[in-house]
Design a protein that fits this description.
The complex is a heterodimer of chains A (199) and B (31). Chain A is mainly alpha-helical and 199 residues long. Chain A contains 8 helices and 2 strands. Chain B has one helix at 2-30. Classes of the chains: A mainly alpha (199), B mainly alpha (31). Chains A and B meet through helix 6 and helix 7 of A and helix 1 of B.
Chain lengths: 199, 31
């Protein structure tokens, strides 16, 4: 009975996660007009499936981290009620946030769910707050800054590459507000470069 | 963007903690 409830809660969490996160990786493709909404969604689904399958091999450490090991005692992690509470808490939060239009982050939801269930089941004295800071909070704080720095470093080079390459045709953007494109002369001697409007 | 990230910390994480804590207590009570 509890095992079935855990499976159902995990499936609900996966559904909520997929409904929100699937498109994130390809949103830029649709936003800049390089792919239609449907095509971008198809690419997102294919690459997410590939990522999920590769995670079976390369993401065992991640799976272990989000099991709660190291954050609460192993005896608590092995408790089915703890697992069910985490899945229900994270899944309900994501569904609620989706419904209310709140920011959705599965990582934040899972971290909060592990913390809340850990505090309720094991008590504050049994929760490893130092591990929480090093394994969850710090990566969550640092990763946007790393992405920002990498994007800032890569952008000039990519702009030069874009200017040097022939323009690729833009896709009809489907539901994108940026449907139109305009041709602007490139800075070099090559053909005009098609760029989406508003850039 | 910063507001969205900040809201994830200020809303999503505490909300999940609260929901899972309530779920844990409710499940323990039901058992």
């Amino acid at each position: 009975m509890i095992a079935a409830a855990i499976v159902l809660a995990a499936l609900a969490l996966a559904f909520a996660n997929g409904a929100n996160d699937n498109f994130k990786g390809v949103a830029t493709l649709q936003g800049c007009g390089r792919a239609s909404y449907r095509r971008a969604l198809g690419l997102a689904t294919l690459t997410t499936l590939a990522g999920s399958l590769s995670a079976l091999v390369v993401a065992t450490g991640l799976a272990r981290r989000f099991s709660g090991r190291g954050l609460v005692p192993d005896a608590v992690v092995a408790e089915p009620m703890f697992v069910l509470a985490v899945a229900v808490g994270a899944g309900a939060t994501i569904l609620l946030a989706t419904r209310l239009g709140l920011p959705v982050s599965t990582t934040h939801a899972l971290t909060g769910a592990l913390l809340g269930a850990g505090l309720a089941v094991a008590g504050p004295g049994q929760v490893a707050f130092r591990a929480l800071a090093s394994s969850f909070v710090t990566p969550l704080l640092v990763s946007p800054l790393v992405a920002l720095a990498l994007a800032a470093v890569l952008r000039p080079g990519l702009r030069r590459l874009e200017a040097a390459l022939p323009a690729a045709p833009l896709q009809p953007a489907g539901r994108s507000p940026r449907r139109t494109s305009r041709a602007v002369p490139s800075s070099g001697s090559g053909p005009p470069t098609a760029r989406p409007a508003g850039r | 963007m910063i507001a969205v990230i900040a809201a994830a910390w200020a809303v999503t994480l505490p909300l999940a903690a609260a929901v899972s804590a309530v779920a844990a207590v409710a499940l323990a009570t039901l058992r």
